[in-house]
Amino acid sequence: MGSHGIKDRVAIVGMGCTSFGERFDTGLDDLLVDASNQAFASAGTNKDAVDAYWFGTAQSGMSGITLARPLQLNQKPVTRVENFCATGSEALRQAAYAVASGAYDIAMAVGAEKVKDSGYAGLNAFPVPNDGTARTLTAAAMFSMVAPAYASKYGIDEEQLRQVLARIAWKNHYNGARNPRAQFRREMSIETICASPRVAGPLGILDCAGVADGAAAAIVVRAEDAHRFCEKPLYIKALSFVAGNGSGLIDPDYDYTHFPEVEATARDAYAQAGITDPRKELAMAEVHDCFTPTELVLMEDLGFAQRGTAWQDILDGTFDLQGDLPVNPDGGLKSFGHPVGASGLRMVFEAWLQLRGEAPEDRRIANDRTLALTHNLGGYPGEMVSFVSILGTELS
Amino acid sequence: MRGIVSAAGYVPYRRLQRSEIRDVFGSGGGKGTRSVASYDEDTTTMGTAAARLALRSVPTASVDAIWFATTAPAYLDKTNATAIHAAARLDNNAVALDLGGAIRSGVGALRIALDGSGSCLVVCADSRTGLPTSPDESAGGDAAAALLVGDEGDGSLIAEFIGAGAATDEFLDRWRTPGNDRSRSWEERFGETKYVPLGIGAWQAALKSAGIVPEDVDRVVVAGMHTRAVKALVKKLGARDGAINDDLTSSVGNPGAAQAGLLLTSALEAATPGEVIALVVLADGADVLLFRTTDKISGFTATRSIEDQIATASDLPYPKFLTWRSMVTIEPPRRPEPARVSASAAGRSEDWKFGFVGSRDRSTGTLYLPPSRVSMTGSVDNMEPAPMADIDATIVTFTIDRLAYSPSPPIVFAVVDFDGGGRFPVELTDVDPADVKIGDRLEMTFRRLSSADGIHNYFWKARPKRSAGTITNSNDGVA
Q1: How far is B78 from chain A (nearest CA, A)?
Q2: Is residue B474 part of a domain?
Q3: Which secondary-structure segment (H or E) carries A384?
Q4: CA distances in angstroms from A244 to A84, A383, A390, listed in the order given
Q5: Is the pLDDT assigned to residue B7 strictly greater than 60?
Q6: Are residues A297 and A189 in the same domain?
Q7: What is the pLDDT of residue A1?
């Protein structure tokens, strides 16, 4: 028994990502073709050369055929995967393990979501026939309970916490404003964020990530083959995933100030990658900032800050674009937008751009470290799935 | 000898100030208040609340049958008493029947139980409404009552059934066609001329059957939709001064088929040993039931008295009342409406969904809501049922969800810890968002969450635990 990971055995050699947003003029098929073609071009390969596909979508389609038909994949194994909002990460994880196993030479992960065709704001899960006793709360409401819990545990007053949360949204809007693919490309003042209409608990509309249409894709090969495809591959150092058992919902000891599933994936991923001081070793991180309090708590769960101190680091600018450890340099879910099946791969796409020096100059991170972390979660406090990857430009 | 073993009333938390009707429309209304069922209550949930209260006073009582009477059934064809039966966790060899349609079925269920055998839980619930400004709108009320009827044999009666009288006549005073929630009535003088002699006839027959005279009656409660006939009859009963009890119309209103049960319960709650109580009901004829309280009445403790429930109420703004009664349709939240409940899935989880029974790990004591076969520590099928409906809880944290679909947004949602251990995230009801605080005490309540495809989704919510002295009034932000 043990989680050993596949450190340095698989490399990402090509990626693509569409712009995210209200793509009312673009269907799922077009999003899939656009993201995939970008990835093929970036790896200098084509759809026939790819041996197997993993397609992540939460609810925009079912089965591998949803990808195979628009791409006209000829007699290829295509697997549709779903794991809540970590669906895109799950597609990458499956493709990478397939290559690591030796089953395939070249695999591709594609994630996409056509959220905006539902006619409703926000995310809406399709109903599985059930006994009618499940909660019908929105994600915003579930995550909103984190804010007062954190404030009371660490003795922060309401107004101070409001500033901390606004600072997170401000940063991600600042970064997103410099990202041509992002859904929201406007900087937002702290005052505007604080004054936005309440949607759930203390959270205003500007504390919430945007939901968007979009797609992203990654091509993976064995590490030793990477240079046949690209000059600067991204090596997979760690992939970790946990599906929670819902214990937080019924455990009286759970206090809504941390996410055990995230802590577990962080521990596992750091062990796989051999990281002992993430704050100093990582060049950047993309984290699942679905709501501002989520990012606050993630800074501690991922070991970027000591318990009870992340709020201070946030106010100090530690996680700003030019801070000690840039977090969500692409604008995060907050302003890049959240097409559920694509988001995990979108996070990897930012690592792909930043670590390889291809990010636009006005949002390029400054440090010369070589490792990036992506963190993707789905579900709610108390009952969530969590994914952490570590990616790097150097073989160790 | 048959009689009453336990009794409880249920009056919803909200009140409509009748004067508000006139303020809005320039007509209608009146003095005092009427009770208003919450948007998530119906006659089944109110009946369940009354049934649970009545059974909590006599935890060891067995129930052979449950008879549910209402003029506003949540379902036709399908029996509604089965949901009350399930929520009260009665034995599955008990009979559950609906007696429906007419207002007289309320006192009728009680008669049948008193004339029958075995231990029978009579549940009456009603929700009365009418067009805006109508007398029915302001005079009506929403409430329920539950009376457990049984035999003297086990010495458990709080009141013995000592006599009855009845009268029946076919005449048109008040009527409503199926599917219509507006009642109609004939010019009231005609009804009065019919009802008063019928009432006197039944009254005399009842006194004769009990071998007593009017002066022997200590308490009289008179129920009936025909207010004028009720008043006229009261004057002709020959009852002692002060024997006529408050009919609760100035606070609760007239809850139709539940009125007889509610008034009898109210009389029992006030009674001392050896009192003769008369229940007089005018509905398409007249029924008079006579009881004599036993010594047990002094030891009988209502789980929550009607008086207490009347005292702990909160005003509902009239526009909200109109939307809750579907008299006014307001813009719904722009979120998908809930899907219909799966009959088979609900059937499998009857204990959980209707009875709020979780499971408790025998080895660690950990509570699982919903029930689980496997524990967090790894043991399998080492669980015992954990009935949680009667356990109070405390708010650990909460939030207000302004986005989620609700028939009456916003949703107030809390993470709660039960007394004695166990946690559950649950929706709150009968609450004003601004009043919720961490540490607030809650009790569980059986409610209708939503309806889709004509299927009502019943499950449990939590509501603030209140007792007299905590009267609150609020005119905005009603959840």
Answers
A1: 18
A2: no
A3: strand A383-392
A4: 12, 6, 21
A5: yes
A6: yes
A7: 66
Q: Domain residues for B84? A: 2-324
A312 and A201, same structural domain?
Answer: yes
Q: Nearest C-alpha of chain A: how many angstroms from B141?
A: 29
CA distance readout (Å), B127 to B283, B383, B391:
17, 40, 28
Number of domains comprising chain A: 2
Q: Is A230 tagged catalytic?
A: no
Is residue A338 flagged as an active site residue?
yes
B294 plus B354 within the same structural domain: no
Q: Quick check: A205 contacting B, CB < 8 Å?
A: no
DSSP state of A18: P
CB-closest option in A132, A249, A250 to B353: A132
Give B411's contacts in chain A (Cβ within 8 Å).
136-137, 141
Query: Has residue B181 got a pLDDT over 90?
Result: no
**Partner residue facing A120 (CB), from B335, B339, B352:** B335
List the one residue out of A120, A291, A308 whose CA is nearest residue B399: A291
Q: By the CB < 8 Å criterion, does A129 face chain B?
A: yes
**Domain assignment of residue A256, given as a range:** 139-210+236-392
Question: Which one is catalytic: A173, A288, A338, A375?
Answer: A338
Please report which residue ranges of B100-181 form alpha helices under DSSP H: 105-115, 135-139
Structural contact between residues A149 and A139, judged by C-beta atoms closer than 8 angstroms? no
Q: Of B324, B356, B386, at which residue does a domain stop?
A: B324
The pLDDT of residue B303: 83
User: Whole-prediction pTM value?
Assistant: 0.94
Average pLDDT, chain B: 94
Residue A39, pLDDT > 70, answer yes
In tens, the pLDDT along B84-94 reads 999 999 999 99
Q: Which residue of A has its CA nearest to B458?
A: A132
Q: B431 to chain A, minimum CA–CA distance in Å?
A: 16
Chain B interface includes A198 (CB < 8 A): yes
